[in-house]
UniProtKB/TrEMBL annotation:
Keyword Nucleus attributed: no
SUPFAM superfamilies for the chain: alpha/beta-Hydrolases
Domain AB hydrolase-1: 26-249
Keywords from the UniProt entry: Hydrolase
Domain of life the protein comes from: Bacteria
Lineage: Bacteria, Pseudomonadati, Pseudomonadota, Gammaproteobacteria, Enterobacterales
Stored Pfam families: Abhydrolase_1
Name by which UniProt lists this protein: Alpha/beta hydrolase
GO MF term list: hydrolase activity
Length: 263
C-alpha cells in the first residue's frame, strides 16, 4: 500500500507525517520517548484497509522539530492542528497515547472543528500529583545524568512486569542500549507541568478514555479523572502496561475500532 510523506512548516517549528490507506481519516499521536513509526507502524494495517491512517512526528520527535521557545501543550496542539488541516478537509478521528492523549485533548478543546471523535489512552489532567511528580522528576534526573539508567527506569514503568519478563534478558538489554529519543528531557519536563483541567470541560466530541490496568507511569486513576472531567465520555480499561500498542495491541485496536464504528 502506498505511503505518502509530507512536511508541514509552522512559524515556530516543522512537523512530519505520513499517511496510508483510503477512507475516513484517523490520526495517531505518540508519547514522550518515541516517534510515529516506532509507536504505531506495526498497527497501521489494522486500520488502513478501510481508513486513511495519519501518523505524525511532532514535539521534536522523528523528523519534526521542537517549537521555538518554551515547549507547551498548546504549541504541540498547534502542530497537530496544522497536520490535520494539511491532510484532511473534514473532521478526523483523533487517537492519542500518554502525552499524545494530553495533546489530543487540547486539540479537541481548542480546535473542535477538526475533530470527529476522540480516543485518549493513558491521559492525565494535571501533573500536580505527588506520585506523578516523584516518577517524572526521577526520570528526568536519570535522563540528565545517566541515559542508560533512564531507559531502564522508563522501561520498567511503560511495560507490565509480566510482559517485561517475557522479553528475556537479551531483548531487555538491547532496548536499554538504544539511544534515547532526541530532546526527550524537554518532553519529560513538559510532563511535569501539565494542567488541562479547564480545557477538558470544553470538549464536546464523542470521547473514549482508556485506562491501562498495569500502568505505573500513568495509573488508571489518572485516566479516570480525565473521563470524569469530559461530559458524556466513555471509559474502558485494558489489561496492559503503559505501552499498550506494544504490549496488548489486539485488545487496544479492538477497543478503538469498536468505539469509532459506533454512530
Amino acid at each position: 500500500m502506498t505511503r505518502n510523506s509530507k512536511i508541514v512548516e509552522l512559524t515556530h517549528s516543522v512537523v512530519h507525517y505520513y499517511s496510508e490507506g483510503e477512507g475516513p481519516k484517523i490520526l495517531f499521536l505518540h508519547g514522550t520517548n518515541s516517534d510515529g513509526e516506532s509507536s504505531f507502524g506495526h498497527i497501521v494495517n489494522e486500520f488502513s484497509k478501510e481508513r486513511t491512517v495519519i501518523i505524525p512526528d511532532y514535539a521534536g520527535c522523528g523528523k519534526s522539530t521542537l517549537p521555538q521557545g518554551e515547549i507547551t501543550v498548546e504549541k504541540l496542539a498547534e502542530q497537530v492542528a496544522e497536520i490535520i488541516k494539511d491532510s484532511s478537509k473534514n473532521p478526523i478521528d483523533l487517537v492519542g497515547i500518554s502525552i499524545g492523549a494530553v495533546v489530543a485533548a487540547v486539540v479537541a478543546a481548542r480546535y473542535p472543528e477538526l475533530v470527529r471523535k476522540l480516543v485518549l489512552t493513558a491521559p492525565w489532567a494535571t501533573s500536580q500529583d505527588p506520585r506523578h511528580q516523584f516518577i517524572f522528576q526521577t526520570w528526568l534526573k536519570l535522563e540528565m545524568n545517566n541515559p542508560d539508567d533512564a531507559m531502564a527506569f522508563s522501561l520498567s514503568h511503560v511495560l507490565s512486569p509480566e510482559f517485561l519478563v517475557s522479553l528475556g534478558d537479551e531483548k531487555i538489554k538491547q532496548i536499554c542500549n538504544k539511544p534515547p529519543a532526541k530532546d526527550i528531557d524537554k518532553r519529560i519536563k513538559l510532563g511535569l507541568d501539565i494542567d488541562i483541567c479547564d480545557l477538558l470541560s470544553h470538549i464536546d466530541k464523542p470521547t473514549l478514555v482508556i485506562g491501562l490496568k498495569f500502568d505505573t507511569l500513568i495509573p488508571p486513576y489518572q485516566a479516570e479523572r480525565v473521563h470524569k472531567s469530559i461530559k458524556g465520555s466513555k471509559y474502558a480499561e485494558i489489561m496492559s502496561g503503559h505501552a499498550v500498542q506494544i504490549e496488548n495491541p489486539r485488545d487496544w485496536v479492538a477497543c478503538v475500532k469498536d468505539f469509532l464504528q459506533k454512530i
